[in-house]
Amino acid sequence: MTTLFTSAEVRNAVELLASRSLIRLVTEIDDNGAIPPRRLAGTLPDLSSHQLRRAAEEARAHGLVRTAPGAGLELTESGSELADLYDAAARWARRHAYPAPVCEFSSRIRHVLDLLAPSLATERANCLSRPSAARLPSDEAEADLVRPRALLIQWLAGNPQATRVSEPEPVA
């Protein structure tokens, strides 16, 4: 069974998951273990304090990280699964030189998520098995997208909070 989402839900999830600072935080913890909160700036010096604070808040709010006493920020099970999705997306992008032969890790992930997004929306159900072919390098590359797409669907199904679309605040 395939779970489909509305275009707004997919857009909301991709916006969250493709955040450069969130990608950096999740993959850093996945690669190197827990980060003490006071060491975030030293561990991720390419991110501003605002970006770090926002990434940590988003990660906590979506259940991706928790603060472990004596260790610092560590990934939850959901965070570890997201790190696996990021790894699969980046491996696919590197293997197929997508979007370019040389590209930043977080940019590769963003492009792959953008590539997968249309096939996840209910409005595009008849395109479900074939994401926008014009944007893919080859049929072989498209076939290789099966794993990242399956991981994304599985992650979104297990983390519905990431697809929630905020209701606009009523004007007083």
Secondary structure blueprint with pairings:
Blueprint: H1 7-17, H2 20-32, H3 40-43, H4 49-61, E1 65-68, E2 72-75, H5 77-95, H6 105-116, H7 139-144, H8 146-158
Antiparallel strand pairs: 1-2
Structural features, described:
With 172 residues, this protein is mainly α. It contains 8 helices and 2 strands; from the N terminus they run ααααββαααα. Mean pLDDT is 87; it is low at 124-134. It is globular.
SS element count, helices: 8
Amount of helix: 40-55%
Give the rounded overall mean pLDDT.
87
Order of helices and strands: HHHHEEHHHH
Shape label? globular
Widest sheet: strand ordering: 1-2
In terms of DSSP E residues, the strand content is: under 5%
Query: Compute the gyration radius: what is it?
Result: 17 Å
Distance between the termini: 43 Å
Structural class: mainly alpha
Number of strands: 2
- Report the biggest beta sheet as strand number plus sense, adding barrel if it closes: 2 strands, antiparallel
Low-pLDDT residue intervals, each spanning 5 or more residues: 124-134
